Amino acid sequence: ALQLREENSSAPVLNIPRRDALNCMRRCLDNLGASYLLSSTSRGDLGLTEQPSAGSAGTWSVGAGSALGAAHVVASPGAAALGEWYPMQTSSDSIGSETADPQLASAMKHLRIGYSDGFAESLHSVRDEVISLLASASRETTADLNPLIVKAQMAESISEAWHLKWEVDPDDRKSKLETAVASWRTRETAAGAGWRFSLEMPMKDLRKELLQIMGREDLKARSLLDIAVCARKADRNGQALGALSRFRRSIQSGSSSKLAWAKLYRLPEANWRVEEAKNLWAQNQRDAAIMTLLSNSAQCADGEVDSDNIVCVAYLNCLLAKWLAITQRESSQTILDTLVETTDALLDEDTTGADPSTSDKACRIFYRMASYADQLRTEIAQRKLSIEWVKAKSILEKNRRQMEAMASKLESTKKQSKDKQLLLYSMNKLNRTIKEDEADIESTEVNELEYENLAIRGYCMALRNGSRYDLPATFRLIDRWLAPRSADHRDQIDLVFREEAQSVPSHKLIPLGYQLASRLAESKEGDFSLFQDILKSTIFKMAKEPPCHM
């Protein structure tokens, strides 16, 4: 790279022409997110300078504290890939002119030093341009308008930060800043709805820079973690890796100064450690991802886990079980036992009034356990429909009839002869075969019923602890309850459903209320009397409780 950056050098590099070597080096550095290592001057001399695209028209920078220096106003692609800046993607060169982004950076500079006149002028320039471009909304598309709205929201966030830093009483600043951060995160979520990564990331990066100016390193670290999560979900692994690296440096510097918030992030069950493993998994480094979770899980098992972090530990173990199932590194029964132990640890935890992230994790854990148990039950059901299963059943029936015939023949043989001894030997051998086949069939039936019970319990707990999987959990729960089965199994499933469904909010069953009502019948003594009683009580509960109470 250093040799390629020499402007006057024309010698081949490792016997490769200079142009080909530079192109190869640029591709490698782009993959690593470090294309800025090749200076724009040397690229221009070779005629390889990239022309600004329409997508970079709205690029902006708040590069305070960046390792590349504060003189950069427009973010480079390499810096963006490393998580330093995030370009505002637009579809028209007219959106986001040359003065808009420098004025945002200028407003950030004046916010830091407290220069009110310059801050007001820069912010007014940004808002004036946004309003003038919105005036031509009839000729633009949503792809052009959305970045303008996001830019206006960014200007509003900077204005709120000025008020907090220079106009609010320091004693009230902490509580008001937390309220403002919650508002900023709401705007980010709205902007990024529908996986619009190019709209969400500039606002997340702005929040990080504003918190740095406000001197809140703990909230800044949280914003870096949010950036890493969002980048990974958008398949921007380079940006996620860069954000995680800066997050790690932040908590290490905080731990050296013995800050309480940094010590919490150093726990093995901390969210960023799981996010680090997820980033490795997204890069197809599955072995490294699994080993990372195994190490963290072992540390959690050896040490004492705070009651506030039980859900985090359970989520870590649940994710580990999911990856082990995908890679088939453990048997299905071992993975299911791990998931059941994980959910049992959460049974005593009430997450209904917890923060959304905690209840969301608990709901996901229960749903994954139920889904995996349901998957194992489906495999058994498919096996029972296979030709091999039907043939095994027919062979078992044939062996039973043969055993009965041999027993009748043995009764007719009274004398102790060689033929009678040979017949006894054949009967013992055939009896062992019959018992083995019967044990295999009975074990399969027991496992199917156990998996179905676990699935129903898991779906009910997922509906009780959160709303992330309301529709799929409701459909799978009602499907398993109403599925046809033998009378013995029907009673057992009905008892499990009656026990677990009592804690499920009745309004979550409303989407399938018509399916339940269509199965109402007159209660009679028989095989379906228990089912009808449970069905009527469930429908009565749905009609009695809000929002459909009568």
Question: What count of helical segments does DSSP give?
Answer: 22
Tell me, what's the shape?
elongated
Taking pLDDT < 50 over at least 5 consecutive residues as the criterion, the unreliable ranges are 4-8, 39-100
> What proportion strand?
under 5%
Oligomer: single chain
- Please tally the β strands and state the result: 0
What is the string of helix and strand elements?
A: HHHHHHHHHHHHHHHHHHHHHH
The end-to-end distance, rounded to whole angstroms, is 75 Å
Specify the structural class. mainly alpha
**Residue share in helices?**
55-70%
| Rg (CA only) | 33 Å
Mean pLDDT: 78
How would you characterize the largest beta sheet?
none
What does this entry look like structurally?
- Helix content is 69%, strand content 0%.
- The protein has 550 residues and is mainly alpha-helical.
- The longest helix has 48 residues, at 418-465.
- It starts with 17 loop residues before the first helix and ends in a 6-residue tail after the last helix.
